[in-house]
UniProtKB/TrEMBL annotation:
Protein name per Swiss-Prot or TrEMBL: DUF6985 domain-containing protein
Domain DUF6985: 15-165
Superkingdom field: Bacteria
UniProt source species: Flavobacterium endoglycinae
Length: 191
């Protein structure tokens, strides 16, 4: 019989057959992504060793699932800038021309393809719950794109999928030097 854990927000998550500390839900509607249906995966979770994970994940998912298309559009400039920064750092490719011709930054979402939602606990500093939208995208085919939300409330990182939840962790710098994470800390007074 398959092992599972239960979230009060998204229901049963079944243990992944390859990674015993990954737990996967059925597909659910993600309002932030115009109700696209995606699986939610709890990563690096051993329920017997992290007894508060599911409760904290449910709280973060509640926050995250309140966000809608207007919230997504408020992130368009950051997503667009991620695209242009990448294109400016690589050799010119004619195939990228449609990306360079974007007039309305909300159009960037036409070039982003969400694959799933990952929920995990940061292993450094705040040990908080972060929700990542993992995506493929037209400009970074090798490493894709991730949008990371601390406590499911606010975007605190947009980057390629490098396995890090914060810029601070990715570049071994203090949280205070991580612009988006620091904005969250100021807004929500999490020190």
């Amino acid at each position: 019989m398959k092992k599972y854990i239960t979230s009060n927000i998204i229901g049963k998550l079944y243990q992944n057959t390859e990674f015993s500390d990954w737990w996967e839900s059925e597909e659910i509607k993600i309002p932030l992504l115009n109700n696209e249906m995606l699986k939610v995966t709890f990563l690096d979770v051993e329920p017997e060793h992290d007894e508060t994970f599911i409760e904290e994940a449910d709280e973060a998912l509640t926050n995250f699932l309140r966000m809608n298309i207007e919230n997504r559009n408020s992130l368009s400039e950051l997503a667009y800038n991620n695209c242009i920064d990448f294109l400016d750092s690589v050799e010119f490719d004619e195939a990228d021309e449609p990306l360079r011709e974007i007039k309305d930054k909300n159009e960037i979402w036409n070039f982003i393809y969400p694959d799933g939602i990952h929920v995990s606990r940061r292993t450094y500093n705040d040990k908080d719950i972060y929700i990542s939208i993992v995506c493929e995208c037209e400009w970074e085919q090798e490493h894709g794109l991730q949008l990371v939300f601390r406590q499911g409330k606010k975007l605190t990182r947009i980057s390629d999928q490098d396995g890090h939840l914060t810029e601070a962790d990715a570049y071994a710098k203090p949280d205070s030097q991580d612009k988006l994470l620091n904005e969250f800390n100021i807004e929500y007074k999490c020190y």
